[in-house]
From TrEMBL:
<dbReference type="GO" id="GO:0004072">
    <property type="term" value="F:aspartate kinase activity"/>
</dbReference>
<keyword id="KW-0067">ATP-binding</keyword>
<dbReference type="GO" id="GO:0009089">
    <property type="term" value="P:lysine biosynthetic process via diaminopimelate"/>
</dbReference>
<dbReference type="Pfam" id="PF00696">
    <property type="entry name" value="AA_kinase"/>
</dbReference>
<keyword id="KW-0547">Nucleotide-binding</keyword>
<comment type="pathway">
    <text>Amino-acid biosynthesis; L-methionine biosynthesis via de novo pathway; L-homoserine from L-aspartate: step 1/3.</text>
</comment>
<feature type="domain" description="ACT">
    <location>
        <begin position="333"/>
        <end position="405"/>
    </location>
</feature>
<dbReference type="InterPro" id="IPR054352">
    <property type="entry name" value="ACT_Aspartokinase"/>
</dbReference>
<dbReference type="GO" id="GO:0005524">
    <property type="term" value="F:ATP binding"/>
</dbReference>
<protein>
    <recommendedName>
        <fullName>Aspartokinase</fullName>
        <ecNumber>2.7.2.4</ecNumber>
    </recommendedName>
</protein>
<dbReference type="InterPro" id="IPR005260">
    <property type="entry name" value="Asp_kin_monofn"/>
</dbReference>
<keyword id="KW-0418">Kinase</keyword>
<dbReference type="GO" id="GO:0009088">
    <property type="term" value="P:threonine biosynthetic process"/>
</dbReference>
<comment type="similarity">
    <text>Belongs to the aspartokinase family.</text>
</comment>
<keyword id="KW-0028">Amino-acid biosynthesis</keyword>
<keyword id="KW-0808">Transferase</keyword>
<dbReference type="GO" id="GO:0005829">
    <property type="term" value="C:cytosol"/>
</dbReference>
Amino acid sequence: MVSRVQGIDGALTVKPLLVAKFGGSVLKSGEDYARAAEITEELQREHSVILVVSAMKGVTDRLLRLARDFEASPSVEIPELYQMHVEALRGAGVSGRLFGEAFSRIARLIDELTKIIWALRVLGEVTPKALDYVVSFGERLSAVIMEAVLRSRGIEAKALTGWEAGIVTDDRFGEANPIMEETVPRVRSRLLPLTEKGIVPIVTGFIAATRKGDITTLGRGGSDYTASLIASILGATEVHFYTDVPGVMTADPRLIPEARTIPRLCVIEALELSRVGGKKFHPRTFEPLLYSKIRARILDAKDPHGPHTIVEPECIDTLKAVAVMRGLAVVRLEGAVMAGRIGTAMMVTSVSKRAGVNIVAISQPVTETRIEIVVAEEDAERLAKALSEEIRNQELDVNVMVETGLSAVTIVGYGLRNPSLRARVLSEALSLEPEPELRSITTGFHDASLTIVTNARDAVRIAERIHSRLLRTRGAGEAS
Ligand SMILES: Nc1ncnc2c1ncn2[C@@H]1O[C@H](COP(=O)(O)OP(=O)(O)O)[C@@H](O)[C@H]1O
Ligand SMILES: N[C@@H](CC(=O)OP(=O)(O)O)C(=O)O
């Protein structure tokens, strides 16, 4: 979509829409906000820009601790948060009236935060709804700073919460889902009138609200999802994710220092990679971009013209990246009575649903004597207990066991559709000495990923081997 933009002289120009998201990793100081403003200024020459901002680095974690951990002292933590935001405002070069206005808004938000934190201390309990309200302050404070910084450079800008920008969700606090029928028309009617007047909307990432106006969050890392959601609703031509690495890399550079930037990823590969923690994307980031023509770019805020990743609709047959997901456990059901017994798998999935446990992976051999459910480690005991109860109620002779300390190593790339490349990946993994323990092997969406569940140590060994043999010099967009 293009936006008709009214200039100061009243003349209308037509510019393509671009959504730019700045992550907490690149919002650590006033200098960072100033850099984000410079990038926005440059983008504005060719585009109508909508910004999505995260909280300053570390702020969401601090707010969560403040709300949950009654040992954390509000009289120490809150003034520190206040100081951090005022310093960023000052450090970004905001002064005079704009400084005064933003300073008062920060003070009001901090005052509101203080009241809620003390109220939680008095109540002695924190509901998921209260937690979302508390963490929302991180993005709200950040958007106030960004607005002041842009305005101090003569760019018209307006900070909006996700709710004010039109995002309506269900009431799954902590992991809310947008209600699209309501969100789509609202986002259009709230944001387009601003861009048409040449105003840059600054939307708080990660936070939205229910129909009743209760603040919700979209899950950790949710600003990515806010950005792609808005881009897809408005039919933007591009969505940019500004971060602290030069794009998506062939592996997490903290795990594999030789990791390199992947110049091109297709949206299916990006979707698979985000599900397993690649670039710590929110797992739903690429959902709204699937089947769209929107291009995503992942860029280093410190070097926006340097190497980066473009995510585009068309896929080519290569291998792209490897990612390791830690902290997994397997809940294993074993019993001869399960064979041929219709409804056993349904029992497992409905018990998981009742226990509020997300199933990361599930498998059963054709002999039907075993079912393995991979879940997050912290959910394993709860699921095992719920399954044991159900098995007792149904008087089945089935054992339930839990094994913790597992990881999943996932190789991503459209090239995996080629059986010989899949075989090559597996033979590389199996040729390690000592031989790794492989718990399960599965393929993902469009065969664009292959996941091996194993113990934590072997997952890293496999990732290193696959990276050094198949990704270090290839897979970054070249044919395999
Ligand atoms: N495959 C990968 N490519 C790039 N970065 C990765 C990858 N896997 C993990 N990361 C990590 O993701 C970090 C960026 O994510 P995050 O800190 O959430 O940024 P932001 O706050 O900008 O959203 C990087 O610093 C890097 O350590
Ligand atoms: N601030 C939120 C949302 C977010 O997306 O942050 P970041 O862009 O820094 O990953 C979080 O920490 O989860």
